[in-house]
Amino acid sequence: DHRDLHSFPTRRSSDLSNKAPWNGPLRLESGTxxxxxVVDEDPESLRYEWLLSDEGWVDNARTLSPGATQIYLDADPxxxxxxxxxxxxxxxxxxxxxxxxxxxxx
Length: 106
Prior knowledge:
Elements: E1 4-10, E2 24-28, E3 32-39, E4 47-52, E5 56-57, E6 62-65, E7 68-73, E8 83-89, E9 95-104
Parallel strand pairs: 2-9
Antiparallel strand pairs: 1-3, 3-7, 4-5, 4-8, 6-7, 8-9
C-alpha cells in the first residue's frame, strides 16, 4: 500500500513529544487533541473517518490540510477501555486503519 499513517496525540500542535504507537494504548488527559498525518501519493483525495467503539462516529473531526486530520477528545471516564479507530480512504475507496485502546487518566 502507498499510505503511511503517522499519528500524534498532543495537547498543543507544537508539542509532538507525546507520540502514540499505532494499534496500541493511548492515555487521555483532559482536553486531548489527536492529530493524524498521512503520507500519500494523492493527499487531496483522502477521506478520514474516526470511530469510537461504544459511541459511534466522532463528529468533531476536521481536516487540517491534505494529509492531516484532527479530533478532540475530553478525558471522559466513559471513554476508558473504548477503541478509537481512524480509517483513511483513498479515491478508490480503499482504506487503511489504525486504532488505539483508550485509557482515561484521572
